[in-house]
Amino acid sequence: MKQLITLIFVLGSYLGGIAQEEVNWKSDLEFLKTTIDTEYPFLYKKISREDFNKRYNELYAQVESMEDYEAVCGIMELVSSFEYGHTSVGLRGTDFELRQLPVNLMEFKDGIFIEGISEEYKEDAGARVLKIAGEDVMDVYRQVYPYFPAENSQFFKAYGMNFLVYTELLAKEGLIPDPEAGVTLTLEKNGKSYERTLKPMEKGKRPPTDYGYTKNEAGWISARDQGFTPNYLKHLDRIYYSEFLNDNNAMYVRQSQIQDDSLVPIPEFYDKVFEEIREKHIDKLVIDVRLNGGGNNYKNKAVIKDIIAHPEIDRVGHLFVILGDRTFSACQNLVNELDNYTNAIFIGEPTGENINFYGDNNKVVLPESEIPVYLSFAWWQDKPQWENQQWLPPHIAVQLSFEDYLENRDPVLDAALNFRDDDFILDPMDHLTALFMKGDVETLKSEAFRLSRDDRYVFFDFENRFAEVAERLLSSGQVNEAMFVGQLNTELYPEAAVSWAGLAKALKQSGREQEAREAAEKAMQLCGDSCGIRQELASLLSSLEE
Fold first, then answer.
1. 8 A C-beta contact, residue 466 and residue 488
2. What is the pLDDT of residue 531?
3. What was the pLDDT predicted at 508?
4. Other Cβ atoms within 10 Å of 130 Cβ, number
């Protein structure tokens, strides 16, 4: 009997090994590429077809010699190269789920911390992560970032931080010998650094969370003081809730999905909010969507209509919207519309979504591995194409420190409640454009330097916005004006390739080719191998050498 059991075990292991070996990854790759090229060619937007094909061919040539987890990671990286959050590889419920260390990581303005952890390592809750497997945590961040379908760094910050502790990714990057190996973290807590070696959890096991925050249940603990709950984490069992903040004569609303709550639908909820605002003569409305990952954007209309119908609230300094890294998808549509049609002041951090984006995906199952790949098909454009940016930035930037989180402080809400408009500028580019149109060059320069150095505008992309203005001036034949803007941009951002590239193009069009060549060479030096405008610069330099 013992021999029979041993035989069955050996045979089962052998057959299991055969099953793994029989996954024809080349066939899956061929199917994936054919599907994309024939049905989703519009996804070649942020990455060119040529660059995608190069990555595909490299993976295709190596995939037969890879371990299964390496092939899966390769497919994740390939699909993520489109850089749309809705276009991704889904591994949950498949044979290829990834292993995670028993921690929940979060990034704050002062570093990456263990926000939650399995109880067996409870003394490490709240520790700052310095190194992973002996590598600086930010180097590991850069290595695993390409495997995640990040719209921008905010989206990775919100939804991808635990990619740093997925052991298949660490093994694929050569940081650990295999996905089942323990991983040594270098941590810092209470002013002391130390090392802790953690074993990965079972495949597919994840921390229990609400909107990314660890719940104190099932053997897990949060680093946050549970004695008090800040407004943005209250009543997370409800999609939205409101609270009158008497000390500030303000109404606070947290809406964390674009879906109807089972208790009351969105239109009825906001009708009640504005009824209370009228009855109590409330002065401010704060709508907090920092946790809102989207839903059904057709439900945004009721919110916008209610705000517009109440001009006593729809005024600068009386309507505030809190943004965050989890603001995504249908909620990006909501904040776009609030930006277009209301006088809202946005406070907090940029959104995790591009302003215009590909959303709504179709599930495509790879025939050999049966891994689902989700490919976006719907283009959502709430703003003109020249206003498309990597994210919607806040008018006033406020970031949480880890200590703020631990001690339940909310400086973002505080900034809204204590807002003063003494020197506040709602739209820096409109302000600077007005000075430009007046010909007030000296004030324009001083204001450009002041605003670009002001922490409140830290997420406002001045250098690229100036480059876009210079490009538009050039295209309309205003060469001298384009040179002025380009020169100003290089003074503001002397280490930015895009600044020098813009100046080079303006100088070339003005006939000052030697200066244009020098500016283009400077841009190329700053560009680096992965710079997005490198090819454009090479063409510009080539044209200047003819």
1. yes
2. 67
3. 82
4. 17
pLDDT above 50 (res 177): yes
- Tokens 């009997």 locate to 1
Q: pTM higher than 0.85 for the full model?
A: yes
If we measure between CA atoms, which residue out of 472, 473, 468, 466 comes closest to residue 451?
466
CA distance 315 to 309: 12
Cβ atoms of residues 169 and 98 within 8 Å: yes
The upper half-sphere exposure of residue 100, i.e. CA atoms within 13 Å in the direction of its Cβ, equals: 18
Alpha carbon 108 to chain centroid distance?
Answer: 14
What is the band of 530 on the pLDDT scale with cuts at 50, 70, 90?
low
Listed in sequence order, the residues at least 6 apart from 137 whose beta carbon sits closer than 8 Å to its beta carbon are: 112, 129, 130, 131, 164
- Is residue 48 classed exposed, middle or buried when 0-12, 13-18 and 19+ CB atoms within 10 A define those classes? exposed
pLDDT in tens, 428-438: 888 998 998 88
What gap in Å lies between CA 382 and CA 356, rounded to an integer?
6
Q: Quickly tell me which residue has 């930037």 as its tokens.
A: 397
DSSP 3-state of 215: coil
CA-nearest of 545, 450, 451, 445 to 504 is 545
Q: Are the C-beta atoms of 352 and 326 separated by less than 8 Å?
A: yes
345 in Cβ contact with 366 (< 8 Å): no
Q: Is the pLDDT of residue 168 over 80?
A: yes
**Which pLDDT score is estimated for 4?**
45
Contact 353, 332 (CB under 8 A): yes
Q: How many other C-beta atoms lie within 10 A of the C-beta of residue 376?
A: 22
Q: What is the percent of the chain where pLDDT is above 90?
A: 75
Q: Taking Cα atoms as reference points, which of 94, 99, 104 lies closest to residue 204?
A: 99
